[in-house]
């Protein structure tokens, strides 16, 4: 029997009015893999995330999550999105613990009264990202790296199988980046599928099993050691091959 893919994207085109953001995209993401998503500003990375999240309906084509239509997969909390820190309203008066508890909403009844199991999973999730000591801190009072870890904890509390991370290493120090990479590798061992958009090319080649190069269409997709070439980097970045990219 063929292996069930975590995410299947078939011939997807996304238009914003008359602007084409994605064109003819075909991708299959395997369970238990870390996939780097590499492209210039405006190349369609966020649009791809939003399409996988079901926030944008493709103009053409189809997306399935673990064999399910997106709406059903979302209802079951299969996919979690860890946003770029800039996209969040940090003045919102909630604690770190409250943010992580949001990951449990899909499991609670409409009154959203946390059960002991929800509290335990929130604690475990905070512990895994080393944020338990800061659980009562207001979210706006965290450093960039701590904010990222809080959202990662929310995704863990949601018990999502598929994690979409938008620029997780922006504004993060080397130690936090290493901690996050270690955690992502641990999640991969447990069968999670992790799609990471990043400008940090040196880290892509060290921890991503596969890499996608994107510019409206998929320019290359495959095992990182095969596709992480000067040619693909140059095609992706319009003739410019960024330095320090650990090219094979
Ligand atoms: N809501 C929108 N309406 C119209 N055009 C949009 C909209 N959102 C994105 N676009 C356009 O679609 C294209 C892809 O944008 P997208 O945000 O997916 O790129 P990106 O790769 O995530 O960029 P970045 O690295 O800067 O975050 C861009 O040309 C962008 O201007």
Explain what this protein looks like in three dimensions.
- There is one protein chain.
- The longest helix is centred in the C-terminal third of the chain and has 16 residues, at 174-189.
- Strands 6-7-8-3-9-10 form a 6-stranded mixed β-sheet, sandwiched between helices. The chain has a 4-stranded antiparallel β-sheet with strand order 2-1-4-5.
- The chain contains 9 helices and 10 strands.
- The chain has 248 residues and is of the alpha/beta class.
- The relative contact order is 0.17.
- The protein has helices at residues 45-53, 70-75, 96-102, 116-128, 144-158, 174-189, 201-207, 224-227, 230-236, and strands at 7-16, 19-29, 34-38, 60-65, 68-69, 79-82, 162-166, 193-197, 210-215, 217-223.
- The protein binds adenosine-5'-triphosphate (ATP).
Layout: helices, strands, pairs:
Elements: E1 7-16, E2 19-29, E3 34-38, H1 45-53, E4 60-65, E5 68-69, H2 70-75, E6 79-82, H3 96-102, H4 116-128, H5 144-158, E7 162-166, H6 174-189, E8 193-197, H7 201-207, E9 210-215, E10 217-223, H8 224-227, H9 230-236
Helix pairs in contact: 3-5, 4-5
Bound molecules: adenosine-5'-triphosphate.
Adenosine-5'-triphosphate (ATP) is lined by residues 16, 19, 21, 39, 41-47.
């Amino acid at each position: 029997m063929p292996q069930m893919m975590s995410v299947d994207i078939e011939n997807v085109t996304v238009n914003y009015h008359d602007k084409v953001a994605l064109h003819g995209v075909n991708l299959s993401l395997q369970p238990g893999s870390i996939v780097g998503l590499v492209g210039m500003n405006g190349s369609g990375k966020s649009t791809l995330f939003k399409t996988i999240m079901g926030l944008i309906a493709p103009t053409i084509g189809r997306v399935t999550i673990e064999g399910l239509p997106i709406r059903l997969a979302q209802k079951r909390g299969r996919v979690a999105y860890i946003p770029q820190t800039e996209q969040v309203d940090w003045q919102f008066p909630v604690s770190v613990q409250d943010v992580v508890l949001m990951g449990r909403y899909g499991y609670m009844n409409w009154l959203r009264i946390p059960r002991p199991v929800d509290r335990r999973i929130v604690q475990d999730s905070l512990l895994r990202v080393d944020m338990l000591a800061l659980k009562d801190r207001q979210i706006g009072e965290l450093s960039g790296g701590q904010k990222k870890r809080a959202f990662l904890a929310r995704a863990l509390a949601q018990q999502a199988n598929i994690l979409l991370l938008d620029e997780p290493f922006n504004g993060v120090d080397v130690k936090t980046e290493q901690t996050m990479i270690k955690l992502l590798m641990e999640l991969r061992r447990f069968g999670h599928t992790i799609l990471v958009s990043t400008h940090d090319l040196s880290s892509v080649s060290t921890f991503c099993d596969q890499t996608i190069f994107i510019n409206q269409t998929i320019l290359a997709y495959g095992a990182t050691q095969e596709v992480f070439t000067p040619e693909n980097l140059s095609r992706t970045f319009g003739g410019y091959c960024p330095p320090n990219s650990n090219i094979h």
